[in-house]
Amino acid sequence: MSVRDLITFTVILGSLPFCFLRPWIGILVFSWIGYMNPHRFTWGAAYDFPFAFIVAITTLAGYIFTKDKDKLYMEKETILIILLWIVFTLTSFSAFYPVQAWQMWGKTSKILLISLITIPLFIDKKRLRYLLLTIALSLGFLGIKGGIFSIAKAGAYNVRGPEGSFIGGEGDFGLALNMTLPLLFYLAKEETNKKLKILLQSAFVMSILSVIFTCRRGAFLGLAAVILILALKANKKIISAAILSLALIIAPYFLTEKWFGRIETISSYEEDSSAMGRINAWKMAWNVARDRPLMGSGFEGLKWGTVERYSPAPDATAGDVHSIYFEVLGEHGFIAFGLFIALLLSAMSSLRKLKKTFKNNPSYKWLCNYVDMIQVSIIAYMVCGTFLGRAYFDLFYHLVVIVVILKVLAKKELINQQNSLSQ
Question: Using an 8 Å Cβ cutoff, are 328 and 340 in contact?
Answer without folding.
Answer: yes
